[in-house]
Write a structure and sequence with these properties.
Blueprint: H1 2-9, H2 16-24, H3 26-42, H4 46-71, H5 73-88, H6 99-123
Length: 124
Amino acid sequence: AKVFVSTVYGQAYEPAGGILMVHAWAGLFVFLGVARSQWLVVEGMTRFTLLATILGAVVNLLLNLVLIPPFGGLGAAFATVVSYAVSAVGTSFLLPATRRIGFMQLRAMALPVTVLARRRVSVS
């Protein structure tokens, strides 16, 4: 990320590469949240999306207040990733009706790790 940022924007912006690296992880939770929103529409639970979004916004605000003063932009990036995780995945465990999708999300996140672990075992 640092090489990308310094190549595109110049050497002066190289420290922003760390922020970009953290922000890249937000994509995982964005994609899981988009998939879940489709499931919520099918299940007739679109009101739940509002609850999840509000909770994510509150978490982001609180974490920004705590993390930005000591860590600056990197703290804001971490706050964003955590709030996306809470909003898109964490809230799936709030209601019994949404826990099923929450476990599906956890399995989706664990799949690459389990596939890599199986490959290492079979290669050995």
